[in-house]
Amino acid sequence: MSFTNHNRLLSLTRQLTSYVNQGYHEQALALFHHMQTSVVLDPPVFPLVLKSCAAIRRTQLGAAIHALVGRMGLLSNPFVACALVDMYGKCASIDVARRLFDEIPQRNAVVWNAMVSLYTHSKRVREALLVFDAMDVEPSTGTFNSLIAGLAGVEDGALRAIRFYRKMGEVGLKPDLITLLALLPACADLGSLNLIREIHGYSVRKNIDPHPQIRSGIVEAYGRCGCLDRATTVFQSMQQKNVVPWTSLISAYALHGEAATALEIFGQMELANVRPDGITFLAVLKACSHGGLADEAIRYVKKMHEYYGLRATSDHYSCLIDVLSRAGRLSEAYKIISEMPVKATAKSWGALLGACRTHGEMELAEIAARALFEIEPDNPATYVLLATIYANAGRQEEANIIRSKMKSVGVRVDPGGSWVE
């Protein structure tokens, strides 16, 4: 490579890096086409351009680059190979990425991590663990981070996520910001207050604590475990608070029945000129539901739409229907279900049906049950509740018919399997 070509390649590669890092992927690909005709390409160019291919799903171009690096003999370059695996996993399929992964002659930790990460992001954690077990190089912090995040995101995975965190320490690897962020939800799921304190202390000692993401995560974790004072202390120590920590603190107080405090915090958030999002309003509506504040819930849904221009989702409407149903305002709840712009979920109908049992409302109970039979025909809670409502009304024959129907369609009662809180 001539000195002139080398300097030009460096300049163009810097420009390409800038485009990719800023998310200007179309410009990055256009520059790559120009580079192909003006300079002799070297290996660092290809991971950059493959990242852009993955970001905007340019599978055909990615495959053409695959062929090109194959002709150039660069498949043994672990960084090029890693980018190819990642591109195929995001643009084509995990299975195509796995076939390429199996063909790579030299796989360092970066390549192994790419495959593990693709599996965990696709919720295929079992296969990620099999890849981990097959690694013939030392795993890195990134390997453990992917597995911890993947395990924390699946049912019954929290305890295994914590075990991998311990294993990480056993092999001499130090947790970083990504590790702690992945681990905190698992700790909260298990109610592991001691481990949350351990993570909090570690983040302070290693100066990770000032990062707003970790503080927001710690606020949420303490809050979910019921340590509202600790959650509030960490929140108040934050110099800059965006919507995430505000929402975490509101959710914490709402979760533990402190509706008035949750709504007070929301008011403080508005005074601080922090714009709430849909998740914030979901936390506010849950506070209203737990506090039996039906009128306030109606007001917040209206404010959400009219003042902030946010569209209520089925989750928001489920909370509103729940609070109205709990308050015995069944006709209003049914009117909202009938008129709301999104399809009513089983949770909405279930809240109404549960309230019908409490208030002895037969007509709406039958309407709600019919809807639930269509949405969740195998949910035993619908059959049990409707039969109970009939029996309580002295309509034993109808109650027996529902129980017989439940048996005939093979629906079994699963303890705890209900949408009724």
Low-pLDDT regions: 416-421
CATH architecture annotation name of the domain at 1-108: Alpha Horseshoe
* Percent in strands: under 5%
Shape: globular
C-alpha end-to-end distance: 70 Å
What's the story with the biggest beta sheet? none
Total E-strand runs: 0
Computed CA radius of gyration, to the nearest angstrom:
27 Å
Helix fraction, binned, reads over 70%
Which class of secondary structure composition applies to the elements?
mainly alpha
**Overall mean confidence score, pLDDT:** 91
- As for the CATH topology of the domain at 1-108, it is Serine Threonine Protein Phosphatase 5, Tetratricopeptide repeat
User: Helical stretch count?
Assistant: 24
Order of helices and strands: HHHHHHHHHHHHHHHHHHHHHHHH
Name of the CATH class of the domain at 1-108: Mainly Alpha
What is the quaternary state of this protein? Answer: single chain
Summarize the structure.
The chain is mainly alpha-helical and 421 residues long. Helix content is 73%, strand content 0%. The radius of gyration is 27 Å and the shape is globular.
Describe the protein.
The chain is an all-alpha fold. Among the domains are: 1-108, Serine Threonine Protein Phosphatase 5, Tetratricopeptide repeat (Alpha Horseshoe); 138-239; 345-421, Serine Threonine Protein Phosphatase 5, Tetratricopeptide repeat (Alpha Horseshoe). It contains 24 helices and no strands. Helix 16 (259-271) runs antiparallel to helix 17 (278-291) and helix 21 runs antiparallel to helix 22. The longest helix has 19 residues, at 3-21. The chain is globular. The termini are far apart. Residues 416-421 have low confidence and may be disordered.
